[in-house]
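Batch manifest, entry 17 of 40.
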Amino acid sequence: MKNILTITLIVFALNVSAQTSLGWNNAMDVATNSSSNLHPRIVLDRNNNPLILWGQSTHAMFSRWNGTAFSVPVALNPSSIPIFTASWAGPDIASKGDTVYVVFKESPETTGKIYVVHSYDGGVNFSTPVQVDFIADSVSRFPTVTVDDAGNPLIGFMKFNSSFGDSRWVVAKSTDFGNSFLTDVKASGFSGGEICDCCPGQLVSAGNTIAMLYRDNLNNIRDTWVGVSTNGANSFNAGINLDQNNWMLMSCPATGPDGVLINDTLYSVFMSQATGDDLVYWSKASISNLQCSGSATITGMFTGLTQQNYPRIANNNNATAIVWKQAVSGSSQLGIYFTSDIQNGLPLNYDTVATGNLNEVVNTDVAVSNGKVYVVWQDNVSGTVKYRVGTYAVPGSIKLVSENVSVTVYPNPAGDYIILDAEKISGYIGYSILDITGKSVLQSNYESPNLKIKIDVSNLAEGSYMLQPSACFYRPSPIKLIIHRTK
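Output type: structure tokens
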């Protein structure tokens, strides 16, 4: 006699919403406090494993998630090249798949050079340092790195003459995966003033668009600007004022912006004290029109708030997270806004990732994958880099949930592929994709548990289909699948 287990499936359709919530795991240390904790930065490898960089005295320290724990930290610079690190600035990291680049500034500042190391295996092995700034007797400062679509590094840095005059941001690009660099090109100076010469900047890229974000100095007005290149950093021919708050300050605030490019829009975050209070702002600007729609505080002033600073932003497609540190009623907090679609704006309320005494949370960074948000921060009570992960439901997906079955299908609408994520399967998972006539145009079965199947649909024409998943004895109703490709 065949035993058949009958179970009711519940289908949840997850709509795009700016109110997407995060479910958090417990915070953990990346390493012991003997490895220090200065200015942590986080990126992801091809499999969305976190790669974490931070400063320790004169070293750039690195650790990677190996599937069960963080690896023992390693120094990426030799002792013969001591580097600049601080809580407010330091080495930078960028990744594309398993290709990883780390940049750092050699000490002392007046004679030290900027170097990059690269890894092509997700941070398992790194190269020896390669010099970036072949600038004769000029002085460099604050390197930042991004990766172009081909996997080559682009490195921005602050540049001065030998007397620390003529301050500007420049960008040097590589065409051989970080083994050599072309002559740098100027990426600032669009306000008619100089740059804020002790504020770090951030370089971001998408396709041929390269954006060098920095704090400007126009007669002591410290607005945040961006230099824009639409030819892959061969030249920067335009700039946009992202800030427009006209913060007048006679000294340097030592805090810079961050940003992400999503299609034609640059979303940026930065701190300004234009109102008399240290507040974090966000803005969005059109690259094609070279116009910013203005900036706004992310929270505004509220009871108990005395200071906000060091904002960071990251995205996965439209899913976007903003993190920052703030002081509230005598304690420090790590705040976060998360939205599954940044085009809908920010949620009404922010979440708190960490809290502690006034000196506990110092600065932070964030990365986003499909379904997860990864946050790191400098914790000065434990003396460690802290790490925490939040999970969210992927918008545009349909999740099938039962006692023994949990299947998620995303993205939907789809481009060249979809993911069939089987979280709890004992037996097999299968699927059929049907066209509008009911004919099966793609199908397969898999017999291994806990599957995450990437299905290539690049050969299917754009249009509407029905995806019929099946697992063990369960065959839920078909899911409407849209295939649409951006031209």
